[in-house]
Amino acid sequence: MPTVPTSADPSAPHSAPFAPSAPLLRLHNPRGLYDPQPHGYSHLAIVSPPARVVHIAGQGGEDAAGRLAPGFDAQVHQALRNLGVALSAAGATPSDVARLTVLVVDHSEARLAVFSRALMAMWGQAPTPACTLIPVPRLALDGMLFEFDATAYLRPEADTESPGEASPATP
């Protein structure tokens, strides 16, 4: 995976394309905006057409059997595992994700740190997607503390599953 250039100057731009020529998705942090990398996101996600768009529904801390993981940390990690499964089913990887929308019940700096560390672990040294975190009073299920949705972009020829071939959510 490419590395993100670092600089002692926090106003210096940093971006890294995912492919050596004509990247489909470029994540960028322009001069004049603070460096969001420590929080696990980028300010801009720039997609060059043509692209196949993959919308991933809200992923929470439920396993394949629908059991909700106990506690915030466990739900974040399960949701990221779920994202990996969904991306794989579409023939995508985390590097193809342009945008995340994150919903957190009882948001705090401590919960932000948990999410940021988990996101950075999943993305490694690659640039992280554009992201908006929204504190909420409650989510769909009792005990659900974390959820996010994602949008990924792939080259059109990357089709691995035809639109009518939905896999069942449980075995």
Can you walk me through this structure?
The protein has about 170 residues and is of the alpha+beta class. It contains two helices and seven strands. A four-stranded mixed sheet has the order 4-7-5-6. The chain has a three-stranded antiparallel sheet with strand order 1-2-3, with no helix packed on it.
List keywords for this structure.
171 residues; alpha+beta; four-stranded mixed sheet; three-stranded antiparallel sheet; 2 helices; 27% strand; disordered C terminus
Strand tally: 7
Helix share, percent = 10-25%
Secondary-structure element series: EEEEHEHEE
Strand order of the largest sheet: 4-7-5-6
User: What is the molecular shape?
Assistant: globular
**Terminal Cα separation, in Å?**
33 Å
Number of helices: 2
- What ranges have pLDDT less than 50 throughout 5 or more consecutive residues? 1-21, 158-165, 167-171
Structural class: alpha+beta
Rg from C-alpha positions?
16 Å
Main pleated-sheet profile: 4 strands, mixed
Strand content: 25-35%
Mean residue pLDDT: 83
SSE layout:
Layout: E1 14-17, E2 25-29, E3 44-47, E4 52-60, H1 72-89, E5 97-105, H2 109-123, E6 130-136, E7 146-154
Parallel strand pairs: 5-6
Antiparallel strand pairs: 1-2, 2-3, 4-7, 5-7
Helix pairs in contact: 1-2
